[in-house]
Every structure is written in C-alpha cells, then in structure tokens.
Amino acid sequence: MIFTVAIDGPAAAGKGTVSRAVADHFGFRHLDTGLLYRAVGARMLAGEDAVAAAEALSPDDLRSPDLRTQDVAAAASRVAVVPEVRAALVAFQRGFARSEGGAVLDGRDIGTVICPEAEAKLYVTASPEIRAERRFAELVARGAEVTLAGVLEDVLARDARDMGRAEAPLRAAGDATLIDTSDMAVEDAVAAAIAAVEVRRSGRG
To answer: Which domain holds residue 89?
Structure first.
C-alpha cells in the first residue's frame, strides 16, 4: 500500500509530535524533513559548502544530537532558501513518500511542493507567542541560556524567512486540513490529525 501523509507548519507548532503519533497509529514510516536541512546547516557551520553538503547527505547525518540546537536551526532556515540545496533533497523526500507501507512526512513544503499529490495533507500551526513559549521551555529544559523575548524574536524571524522565501515558501496547501494547536492539548491535536487522515483513507475526503 502506498499512502502519503503530508504535514506542514511553522516551527514549534507541534507538527513533529503530531506526525510521529500519526505514523505510529497507522504503522507508517516517518520522516522529519526539517532534519535534512538541519543536517545540511550543521555541515555548513562546520565549514562545508551548503550545496555540496546537501548532495553528500547520508542517513547517519540525521542522527546527530546537535541538530536540535538553536544555531543549527537558524542555519537550517538559511540553507533552506538556497534553490540548489532544496533540489538536492527533493528526490530523497519524494522517494521516501512513495515507499511501500505508507509514509508521513513533516516539513514546510511537503503538501505544496514535495508531495502535492499526497493522499492526506495537514497544516499544523499555532500563534507565534504560544510557539515561542513551547520552544523556550524546551530549550531551558536542555540547559540553554535563553530568554523568552529572544526566542520569540527568533520564531518571528524564522517565520519571515520561511514564508517570504521565493523558493517553496511555507504556506498551507489549498486542500490541507488546518489544525491550530494554540489552545489544544497534545492528545486533542493528535486525535484531530488521526481523524483527518482516517477521512482521507476511507475516501470520504
């Protein structure tokens, strides 16, 4: 069976949590496509050319714990606007999406660019303030020395880059189901996502 679930949305909206839960529920494979860009960003910070890093990326690059740092996140957003980097990673993502057994991909252009023909599309979002609070709590728990105001500034700057870039800007696909997690518990967001996918799988959507 080939069935693709495309889940897009801005940083810290909860799409990663939702995507992993959807994949677990249906027994699908899961790919956090943001990790591809973070891995390229990390290699760029280490001195490599971004395009060369994207072309040479391997699965091992996605396992580094350093990919979750703020510096790497910022670098990922910068390399994501480079057309040659995006082109180098498109084939990998599309191949994963159409693998046998079903697949869930989360990112920023899955439903609009990578998999416009995906059987199910979701757009997971939340207000910038809520997303900043979530990211702040996550970073503090890891021991990072950050301020809420600084994190909010980073969130807004990343939104501006992701939504304003000429190549594959972040936006909801026209046929995506919108899930705003601002005032939702994790369990409710996951339940809404699973229900939306079930509708598509049953042919009712």
So the answer is: 4-201
